[in-house]
Specification:
Elements (H helix, E strand, L loop, with lengths): L5 E5 L16 H5 L3 E5 L5 H14 L6 H14 L5 E5 L6 H4 L9 E5 L8 H6 L5 E4 L5 H8 L4 E3 L21 E5 L6 H14 L4 E5 L19 E4 L4 H10 L2 E4 L8 H8 L4 E3 L22 H13 L1 H19 L1 H15 L2
Parallel strand pairs: 1-2, 1-3, 3-4, 4-5, 5-6, 7-8, 7-10, 8-9, 10-11
């Protein structure tokens, strides 16, 4: 097993994530275990200019030049460093950078977030260059390994800040409120159908939809725009997001596909039952074992499952406790950070 003395972390911050949300929250825990150098694209005019020069030198097409500058920083930090691992956190966003090598050395570790069907053409071409990968879901790992040319892959769960996202029964509201959040990979037509049926069947229900303002008028969601049982939310900070979870009775999250899903792990940490579809990596995060799932586009089953939670509060509470326990035992960032360090050592050997 290789000895890892330093990790260079090429990260990509998500604009709407706060300090407790998303994978960047792992870094303080990882920094306690090893020397850590974090590189994140930052928007300044000099960085953009140098990034553009770097892209032109490499012959890359027009792209986000702040990302190009960050890649240059990571490459320079990594070159010649012994016992150093370069971790490309969102590998799918760095296809051109990965093309610098015919075959990447083992100590360049790439995290894969997305199922194969969602990869861009450029990333599909780059994947064969990878030597080491961390994947956040088990479905498709065999396929990913075959495309890489060798199965040098570790499955690690996406983590969550269980100290921040946690239940607070004092804030649970009545009548029950049902939370939906996000845009990417969601089955929005199913959401619309299910919400309409639930609201008609149980008029006291209230729904909180956390969706960016610009997306609410999309063809799929527009039928809910003026629905009287719905409160729309957007632009929340971490504290407001946490409070939204804590006042909710459950999370309704119909999905068409799933790899790593921040809403899923935050709901689990908040002790909320998830009503979601059995797609992608959902089973890796307790689907079918910690909490029941339904088949995609099975509206009847989803409406029935919500009704069961509402009519059986003790069962709802039991699922919530199991969800929280799963988050503490499996998804807490200190555990995930330790698994990352072990993976770096094994993958780079």
């Amino acid at each position: 097993m290789a000895r890892v003395e330093q990790v260079v972390f090429l990260a990509s911050g998500v604009a709407w994530f706060g300090s407790h949300t998303g994978e960047m929250a792992m870094l303080p825990h990882l920094s306690r275990l090893t020397k850590l150098k974090t590189i994140v694209p930052r928007k300044t005019l000099p960085r953009r200019f140098i990034g553009k020069l770097h892209s032109m030198y490499r012959g890359w097409p027009p792209r986000n030049q702040h990302v190009s500058f960050a890649e240059l920083q990571a490459w320079m930090q990594f070159q010649g460093s012994k016992n150093t691992v370069l971790h490309v956190l969102r590998s799918e966003e760095h296809s051109h950078f990965l093309s610098l090598w015919d075959k990447l050395p083992k100590n360049i570790v790439n995290t894969i977030h997305l199922p194969v069907a969602l990869w861009s053409k450029d990333y599909r071409e780059a994947i064969s260059r990878l030597s080491s990968a961390i994947v956040y879901f088990t479905s498709g790992i065999e396929k990913i390994g075959s495309l890489m040319g060798q199965p040098n892959i570790k499955f690690i769960h996406n983590g969550v800040d269980t100290d921040f996202f946690k239940p607070d029964l004092r804030k649970l509201q009545t009548p029950p409120r049902i939370l939906y959040s996000g845009v990417y990979l969601r089955n929005e037509p199913m959401l619309v159908r299910v919400v309409k049926r639930l609201a008609e069947k149980m008029p006291d229900l209230r729904f909180d939809l956390l969706v960016p303002a610009h997306h609410r008028k999309s063809p799929a969601l527009a039928p809910l725009l003026e629905h009287p049982a719905i409160t729309w939310h957007g632009g929340l900070n971490d504290e407001e997001l946490c409070a939204l979870y804590q006042r909710s009775y459950l999370v309704l999250l119909p999905m068409n596909e799933s790899g790593a899903n921040t809403a899923v792990v935050e709901a689990l940490a908040s002790g909320l039952p998830l009503v979601t579809t059995d797609v992608g990596g959902i089973r890796d995060y307790g689907g079918g074992t910690v909490f029941p799932t339904v088949a995609n586009n099975d509206d009847d089953a989803m409406v029935e499952l919500v009704g069961r939670y509402l009519s059986k509060p003790n069962w709802r509470d039991d699922i919530g406790l199991k969800s929280r326990q799963f988050a503490e035992d499996v998804l807490a960032w200190p555990l995930i950070a330790a698994r990352h360090l072990k993976a770096y050592q094994e993958l780079s050997a």
